[in-house]
Specification:
By secondary structure, this protein is mainly α. It has 5 helices and no strands. Helix 1 crosses helix 2 and helix 4 packs across helix 5. Helix content is 63%, strand content 0%. The N and C termini lie far apart (50 Å). The chain has 2 domains: 59 residues; 46 residues.
């Protein structure tokens, strides 16, 4: 299962450099370098925590709470990402996102 193609793509918002490596190549490197294995394990655990935390917020928070939390964490994205995508990311209606945004703008 771990060596199947992904069902998603990633699009960078700014100029980026990416590295890629095959699954088996990563496994071989981690077998050879235990410190790399530890780093990958810690990064994986942190990513899993982030996903679980975000999912809990999506399910438990009101639209206002999601919007406020987003503004505290990532206000710079308001000028980088179309608002319809931010609304979708926050799991709120685009018109609700627009109303919340206009309520905080000066």
């Amino acid at each position: 299962q771990l060596q199947t193609p992904a069902h998603y793509t990633v699009e960078a918002l700014t100029a980026s450099s990416m590295l890629r490596m095959g699954y088996q190549q990563l496994q071989d490197l981690m077998d050879k370098h235990r410190s790399l294995e530890r780093m990958v394990r810690l990064a994986t655990a942190a990513a899993l925590y982030g996903v679980m935390h975000r999912q809990a917020e999506i399910m438990a928070f009101s639209a206002e709470q999601k919007f406020t939390t987003f503004l505290q964490r990532s206000p710079h994205l308001l000028n980088m990402v179309p608002h319809k995508y931010l609304a979708s990311y926050l799991a709120i209606d685009a018109s609700t996102f627009s109303k919340l945004l206009s309520s905080v703008r000066i």
